[in-house]
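User: I've been going back and forth on whether these two constructs are worth ordering. Before I decide, could you fold them both?

Assistant: Sure. I'll take them in the order you sent them. The first construct and its structure tokens:
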Amino acid sequence: MKFRNSFISLVSLIVVAGVTVIGTAPASAGKAAKTIAFASANYNVTEGDTAAITITRSVSHGPASVAFATSDGTAGSSHYGSVTTTVSFKSGQSTATASVTSIKVGDVPSSGLTVNLTLSSPSRNWALGSASTATLTIYPMPVPIAPTGLSATVVTGLTIPHVALAWNASPTQGVSSYKVYSATTAGGPYSVVGNTAATSYDVTPAPRVLTYFVVAAFNDYGVGSTYSNEVSAQPPVIGSGLYWSNFSNGTIMAANPDGTDATALVTGEAAPWGVAVNATNVFWTNETSSGTIMRANLDGSNVTTLVTGQSNPYGIAIDAGHIYWTNYLSGTVMESSLDGADVVTLVSGENEPTALALVGSKLYWTDVASNRIREFDLGGTTVQTVLDNVGAYPFALAANATYLYWAVTGTNGGSDGTIMRADLSGSNVTTLASGQAHPQGIAVGSNNLYWSNANTASITRASLTGGSATTVVSGQSLPAGLAVSS
């Protein structure tokens, strides 16, 4: 009896204390609420970009999910992609994201357009936090900021010289392209050189005058930045000393004597073949049935037609006051002043005169149909043969104060051409090089002999004192006539 009374007293004490021993107390009593909410009440995105909407939960233990949806605020369906999705959390994950992509429209005001964001339907045992709604503001694509750090480098070599431009990217979002501008005076006015999505651009070929460059950044709507810093580029140092024609692609080329800095001086010629050069100009023949004698400055500028109506003009030579050339089909050797005036026929009745060389007052040429080298003294009237039977198809000829040099082409498409030499009187004939690939032009400098090999599209050089031949220029387009300045 005493034990029973004690038990009743204990129960009464517990009840008095307000603790329910027998019954259903809430499972979460004394625990923090488990909520899911937006990390921020406001999110921003630039037109055309994607916004990452961060959603957080108060407890990272166990999985959870919540519904996420967008709806129109001041932005309509044309401004963003509507989203209705479920955002899930893995156990241990306290944040998750939903993506909303804005659309490039171009009519977003500077104040922006809004999209409503809503969370709903949290998973079991989870509740929505106080930030269950938020606002996404779409701002217009910004006007690009000008790129910086523009630099210009003149690049020469075996390719066509060009100006390599490089700059730092505009820091503005939405930049899709850059425009490159140039001017011949500092500060402009500028004209467009080209467009690129990269942060570099090659201006090819390099301008032949001092040129100024700037760059501007543009967004997808064609809105551009102000100009970058201005840089200048000096004209490239064009290869000098060695000149030749590319018959197939109609170019007059120049390079240093070692073959470096090769560049096209003149393009678009009809059929350039013979080449001659002095201290200020390069001259060439266009070997067609209505051929021309041409001239340009050594940098390729001021291309001028001096003489027209010639009959397949081939070889060419110059002195202080005159131009000389052969007319292959009409069998004549011609003369004019350096400006193309006073054209006269010096010699007629030749058998397909081709290559031409000048030493002092004497002109030398090859008659390709009769395989001989002929001579004419400008101070007289007599034509004589210097050498007979020089080899089949002597299409190239050069001379210095001591020797005549010529090339026998050999089989078209083969490698049986030869480079020959003889005294100016025609004695002491010597083979300098054999196995050449259809040589079609030859030139002699103070230390070296050069010739063009049509079948290998190259220019070859050998020392006048002997030694092996070396290819100094390759990748040409049927190289023909050659000239070299000392």
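The second construct, handled the same way:
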Amino acid sequence: MNEQAELPDRIDVLVVGGGQAGLGMGYRLRGAGVSFVIVDDRARTGDVWRARWRSLVLFTPRRFAALPGLPLPSGADYYPTREQLADYLERYAAEYALPVAHDTRVTAITREGDEFVAETTRGTVGARAVVIATGPFQYARVPRVGAKLDVSVAQLHSSGYDCPDDLPHGRIAVVGGGNSAAQLAVELADSDPARDVTMIAPQQPWFIPERILGLTVYWPLKLLGILSSPATSRISEYIHSRGDGILGTEAKRAIKAGRLRLLTSRVVDAHERSLVLADGTRHEADAVLWATGFRTHYPFVQVEGALTEHGGPLHEGGVSPVDGLYWLGLPWQRRLDSSILHGIAADSLDLLAPLERHLGRVPAAASDSMEP
């Protein structure tokens, strides 16, 4: 268990978010000798992962699920479980003595002169710079049409799902076309042969094999430079246009074997106990699991020029047009791998130099103790 950090009245850098992105930024700041504190609204480092569904495993191998400076232990599964990753994050914070103030939620960040003022549930902090590392997965996105379903139809978002017992038996619709939707649809289909599970994806899923020539698909992507390719590169733009890829073919095999049904159309409406699809068909269900992702929402950021008109981060590679404000942990922030733990090492390093310049320091060359 990590020690609770004191919340200072004033600090050079305030890092908002104590998950992998916030810890990765803390590692960089610690190495540069910058004073900082990380605020985390959870009671314990890693709790953001402990709160996810019970059977969750990462779709990235442990070699590509590590933060800068410290690999996952060899005893962790090849594809780490939620508990293994949570414990790793806790160990990481302890290893580098990162100052994390737990049970501390930021309610507002404003600008006063050249500094920022953060109102938190434990008091006010003044900071010369702020790194927002909460990530984009804070507010569950549930389509409005769900409100039209009959009250007898059970509904749950994937962020609130723990295990198959959370949903009734019968006809279950899993709405979504990403990795979470595929994992949960398979789990529900395999939990009881009497369950009739249908995955409703907006388009034909893109199933990516876990291994190529006996190697995890991540190694060829890394060796060819694709994994770290700039977000603006042609390969990145192509992959981005394809939508979420589903790593592994377990769901594909379940569909082929008839254990899982797949419908490819968007849910556009609902009536009584049926979801209405864009192709005009209706799908009746006893329960709906919405694996529809999250919406971008940062209501606590109350700094003019920091957000787009839709409330998303306004930035270029994590650097805000607001001097002294930075973002970390966003999908496609700088590279293809910005959305996974592997990308935090490079993205945090890229932010360090402009942050140090803002503080009036001469950026020093930084490196990782962990081999790339």
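Notes on the second construct follow. The longest helix spans residues 344-358. The first strand starts at residue 10 and ends at 16.
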